Structure formats: C-alpha cells, structure tokens
Amino acid sequence: MTSGYAIVAVLVVALGTILVGTYGLRVSRTTSDFYVASRTVSPWWNASAIGGEYLSAASFVGIAGLIFAYGPDMLWFPVGYTAGYLVLLTMVAAPLRRSGAYTLPDFAEARFRSRGVRAVASILALAIGWLYLLPQLEGAGLTLNTVTGAPDWLGALVVTVVVTVNVMSGGMRSITFVQAFQYWLKLTAITVPIVFLIIAWQVHGSESLTKPEFPTFRQDTEVSFHNQTMIHAEQSIFIKGTGEIDGTHIENTGLVLTDGNHRIGQGSEFTFPQGAPVPHVSTMAHNTNAMWALPESSGQQFPLYGAYSLIIATFLGTMGLPHVIVRFYTNPNGTAARRTTLIVLGLLSVFYLMPPMYGALGRIYTPELLMTGQTDAVVLVLPTRMIEGIGGQLLGALVAGGAFAAFLSTSSGLVVSLAGVLSQDVLRLGGVRGFRISTVLAGIVPLAMTFVSTGMPVADMVGLAFAVAASSLCPLLMLGIWSTRITKVGAIAGMLAGGVPALTAGLVTMFTDTGDAWYEVLLSRPAAWTVPLGFTVMYVVSLLTQRHVPPGVQRTMVKLHAPENLGLDGSGPSSSDERS
Amino acid sequence: MTTPPPQRPVPKPTQRVVVTSPRTRAPRARRPYSGTREINEQSELGAVYMRTLIRAQRRLGLSVCLVACGALGLLPLLFSIEPELGKFRILGLGLPWFLLCVATFPMLLLAGWFYVRQAERSEREFAELVERP
C-alpha cells in the first residue's frame, strides 16, 4: 500500500517535531531548564506531555494488532496500561514529586542515602529504557516499510536521528511542548479515521463481527510474503501466482493449496480467491470469528496464568518506567502531580477506546494479515482497504503520521531520561555538554541493537520492559515511599531478586526458541512470579538488617509526605524559612 | 460567625457592644506554629503527626487501588470459571468486550477522582492540625 500521501505525512510529523523543538530551544538556557523544564509546566500541559510520551508504538499499532490476532484476552493491554496510572496516582505520584529528585536514581539516593542503591537503580533504569526503545525503533521500521516499502532499518535510523537532534538541542522544555503536541496529534490520527471506517462499515451493511465462520477474503486478494512463513489452511484453496510452496517453486501458475500446514517461501506473491477462508500463521489459534470474540481464545497455554501475569506487569510496571517517572519532576508540587496523573488517566481512557475497534474491523477487512503474520500493520492498512480512492489514502496518511508521532514521542521521552541517567551516573559529566554526549549514546545503543536483534514482536518486548520495571523499580518505589523499615541492603537485594530473573527470562524468550515447553509462559510472562519475589526479598532482607536503616529516614518521610506549603522539611530546628 | 448582628441605630439608650474579631482562615502571615515546629524539631509528637498522615494516605491509596484493581482482577477468574459469561451480550457487545473496552475506563477515572479528592482533604486536615498554635 505504497502511498505518496503517507510519505508526506511522515515527513510532516518529523519536520513538525523538529520545528516545535527548535522553538523550545529559545527558551531553554540553564541546566535546570534542560532537565526538568524549570518545574513550571501546568497540569494540562504536563498531562498531555505524559500522554504523548506514553502512547508508544505498542499502543498505537501493537494493541490493535494483538486484539485482531488473539481476541479479547489482549484487551488487558490497554486496560493495564491505563490502570497502571491509577496505581501510580494512588501510591507514588505526590511523594515522588516531593522527593525533589531529577531521575529515578536520584530518588533512590535521596531515600536511602546510598551510592550502592543508586547504582543498581541506574543500571535497571538503563536496561528498562533500552528494552523499551528497541521495539519503538523496530515499529518505526515496520511502519515505514508498510507505507513506503523502504527497508526496515531506515525507519529506525530516521527516528533515532530526529529524536537525538531534538533532545540535544532543546532538552526537556522543548520536549514538553513536543510531547503535548504529539498526544493531540495521535488522538486525532487514531480517532478521525475510525469514525470514517465505522461509517464505511455501516454503509457496507454492518456485517456481523462475530459470525461462526473463519475470516474470508472479501475480494480476490494479492498477498506478498516478506519472510518465510508457516501457514495453516482450513480447507483446500486454489491460488495463483509466483513463489515457493513447501519447497516447490511455481511461476505464474495456479495451485491447489490443500488443507493443513504449508511453508511459503520468502518473496512469494500469490492471489487468493474471493470467499475462501483465510489461512493463518500456523502458531495462531484456529478460530472462527465467533470463537475469537470469546475470552481465553488465544490458544495460549495456561491462559489464566498469562492473563494475571500481564495484569501484574502492566498495573505495577508503569510506575517503574524511567521516562514516565522523569515527568513528575516537572510538576510544581505534589498536589499538581496528583492532578496531572488524574488528567493523564482521562486522556489515556479516551485514546484506548479506539484500538480495539481497528482490531475487530480487521477480522473482516484485512484478514490476510493473519496469514503474513504482520498483524501489527492492521491499523495502517485498514483505511486504504475500507475506503476507496483519495479519501482512504488521506486517512491512511493520517494514521501513518500518527504512528510515526508515537515512535518519535516515546523515543524522545526515553532518550531524555536515559541521557539524564547516563550523564549523572555512568559518564559523570555535568552540565549541558555532558547531557548532549549522553543523548547521543542513549540513542545509538538501541539503534545498534536493532541490527543484531532477531525481529521479535513489538508488543512482547514492551511487555518485557514492563515486567522488569514491575519486579525491580516498583518494589523500590512502593516500599521506599510507604515503609520506614527498608534498608539499603534490602533495597539492593530486592531490586536484584526481582529484576535479574525478569530480565533473564525475557532475554531467553527473545533470543532462543522455547517452543511449546511447559515453562514457556513462565519465561514470556514472568511478572507473576518475579514481582512477588522482588517485594518479598526486599521486605524480608530489610527486616533482617534493621541496623542498616538509612540515617534520617524520618526526615526523608516528612519530605516525601508533608504538603509543601507548610514549611515542613524535617531538616531541623532552624527551618523557619517560609519562602517556597 | 458568633458575633451578634450589628445594632441598627434605632434604640434610644446608647449601648456599648463588644465586637470580637471573627476567627477566619483568611490569609495571614504564616509562622511556624507549634505543630510544624514539633515536626521540624523531630520530637516524639512530631513523629506522631507524621505517622498519622502517612498511615491515612497509605490506607486511602491501598484501598482505592485494591477496590479498583481487585474488581478488574476478578474478571479473568470469572471468565475462566464460567465460560458461558463470555457469550452474554450487552449493548450488542460481548460481555468481556463491554467490560474491558467500555466500562473499565470510567470506573478507573472515578476511582482516581475520588482518591485525589480524599488525599487533598486529608492533607488539608493535616495542615490545620499542625498549624494550630
């Protein structure tokens, strides 16, 4: 679906992002401006910025793709991404802001007065950030590939360059403007097309989405396979075209694809007849549309464990994402931090109404993606497929622009926070120059990783980043804020006990083929066992090492929990200074 | 307002009325009152003040979280125990779709709004407590 309009849209988004960023450059001058926008951002700006930053490739294209392929079990992704903010609001928003630190390692040091805790938190924040950046870059590659046919690495390169230049020149102040702009752009880009798509669906006779039949081709459909693919056909289909099936090469002739599994060679192009049931990737569950619409239809082993693990990872992981946390320091005080979070909850709720609709319509209009396995492309392909002519192309361009905005904004936020951690904790370079060097490094590492990574699904990797955050940084924040008993030793032990297994489990699933082994789900969805592990180890080890409770913990607690306007800082008798 | 209504100049015998200054919470210069000083000086009483605030906020946060997330967390179990529930339809949508796509978000927002209101209230009460001379 190469389209000139889509290329223009992607270019406009990239240039617009740079322009808005340059505007920010004029107003950001000091080091403090660079890191946290001098803490003068209003709740609405800040909330839009958080929304813009948070709605990533996984939200914009990934969720719709997963729902399209696996049904309502995947609705836990949008629900979890939103509910994570309720947990963040109720447990950490205000104290986190009141801690007055710039980054998560700063919080760790302020709370525990320990370089050790800080170092472990820094390493985990870096690991989570890079894990999260990788799927953004791969998603950008996929989008550019779908709309223009450009090679996969080009999208990743474009995103890295735009983001790095932008962050280097403007810092966080400009990023706040950019991010706020990106949220509204993304909301428009996903809402306007779905309105037209639903009208089109009604005009086409509002065909039922849950018929007791397999998805079928609506017209003769030409499908190209970019990769070698194992597909499963439900019944024999007569196909035509050029390519390789089960090792046999055919050249522009017809062939009966018998029911069962077949291996389609890379670069094959076949035309499938109208009305035939769509074969699908062999690893997907064999579902009619009616079965697809029911819970536990994804064909996963131990669906209940999988669902709960996903719930735990997303509900608790949000607060541990470095780019989300850094936003809280731009609120003027704890009360504003809470209000900002509440607004974010509203903004996300509106956005997440849309992706499931794309997923459901995809079952009728773009079923061939079930066969090529490019389910993430459903949002991008639907508009041009459902609406004929220039209207569909313009809507397709809007969606492509929105998707690109998603990659740009999330990557920007991640690069800002990673650069903060890198310059303060790893390179130990202060000032604006240190921040700029760190920015380049923060962008280059994941770009290099995209060349060696093995092309795992976008949503899986994002889920992994959430699981690692939930198992390591979430216990640090939750227990650190609400309990005075946590010690340095306990904090370090807990972060490692939760974070290391989660990270290892994820890397094993990504780089090796665990296949159908019974423990596969324990590795691909580790949160349900690593999160309790992290919490328990942190608390128990702390109880065993009570002699190492950090000094001045009561004062820290005053700082974290007392409203700012009371002149309470717990810093001793001389604190009668009321100017704040 | 406990002051008597102002006297109109009707009655003959001139009276003297004592007017006390009404206690208002209007802005006044803030000085460290005893509660703030207790906390800043790390006294036992100050620690009690802080513990009360932290406990109240922790209980509020945990209960809002547990009610909202707990309600959501029951759903997978429910659909697993009683698969027939998945076929039930509301407003033309299957029950899981209705609950997770439509009903969840207003519920989360309501929970968040309630939490913000209560948390700000308990901070106000804390402020009144420690600023009392």
From TrEMBL, chain A:
Keywords recorded for this protein, A-Z = Cell membrane, Ion transport, Membrane, Sodium, Symport, Transmembrane, Transmembrane helix, Transport
Record localization: Cell membrane
Matching Pfam families, A to Z? Answer: SSF
Matches recorded under Gene3D superfamilies: Sodium/glucose cotransporter
Q: How does it sit in the membrane?
A: Multi-pass membrane protein
TM annotation in the entry: 6-25, 45-69, 75-96, 116-133, 153-171, 183-203, 305-329, 341-361, 394-422, 434-456, 462-482, 489-512, 527-545
The primary location reported for this protein is membrane
Q: Which family does it belong to?
A: Belongs to the sodium:solute symporter (SSF) (TC 2.A.21) family.
Q: Under which name does UniProt file this protein?
A: Cation acetate symporter
Q: Which organism is it from?
A: Lentzea miocenica
TrEMBL record, chain B:
Query: Disordered: where is this region?
Result: 1-36
Task: Quote the biased-composition stretches of kind Pro residues, using this chain's numbering.
Answer: 1-12
Q: Does the keyword Transmembrane apply?
A: yes
**Residue ranges of the TM segments:** 60-81, 93-116
Regions of compositional bias (Low complexity) in chain numbering: 13-24
Q: Which domain of life does the UniProt lineage start with? A: Bacteria
> What UniProt keywords are attached to this protein's entry?
Membrane, Transmembrane, Transmembrane helix
Q: What is this protein called?
A: Solute:sodium symporter small subunit
